Amino acid sequence: VKKNFENPSKYKCVYEKLGNKELFYDDYCNWQSISEYKNFLFKSNIAFIASQLMCSKKVNIFHEHVLIKEPGSIKKTPWHQDQSYYCIDGFQNISFWCPLDDVTKENSPEFIAKSHKWKQKFLPTKFHGNSYEHIDKEFKKIPDIENNRINYEIRSFDLKVGDAIAFNF
């Protein structure tokens, strides 16, 4: 990760700053140029775990995505459905969230239980707070989950370094 952000790709984006200090930022599509990412993908058991969870004999890498929230960050990650950002369709897919620090349940990503079974596709959510234009009837605006949390079975977890959350994107 240090190597990544010392020389970020053209995809790096900063979502929150305090003065000159970046507090919430990301980058992606670097696994082919950063040997540590490539080693993780090809030499760990992550592909095997993915194949087992998807009941698949084959696993293709779409991309890695590194999100960093430094101490002091107050910006919440907006509710979103990952698949609407990608140029793929179907349900046989998986993402992993692997914390690089211990994370409390209160600071962990939140997921809506069984939302992977929802038939509706939602417009991508810009992390800067704006929503994308509605140009395709296939996608609807995501519901206001944050202000209606009681209507959803929201889950999050205490995680230690080495843990991972697997989810359908």
Could you explain how this protein is built, in words?
By secondary structure, this protein is α+β, with helices and mostly antiparallel strands. 14% of the residues lie in helices and 20% in strands. It is built from 3 helices and 9 strands. A hairpin with a 2-residue loop joins strand 1 (13-18) and strand 2 (21-28). The longest helix is centred in the N-terminal third of the chain and has 9 residues, at 35-43. The radius of gyration is 17 Å and the shape is globular. The protein starts with a helix and ends with a strand.
The overall pLDDT average reads 91
Q: What structural class is derived from the secondary structure elements? A: alpha+beta
The radius of gyration is 17 Å
Give the SSE order as H and E letters.
Answer: HEEHHEEEEEEE
- What percentage of amino acids are in beta strands? 15-25%
The end-to-end span amounts to 23 Å
Number of strands: 9
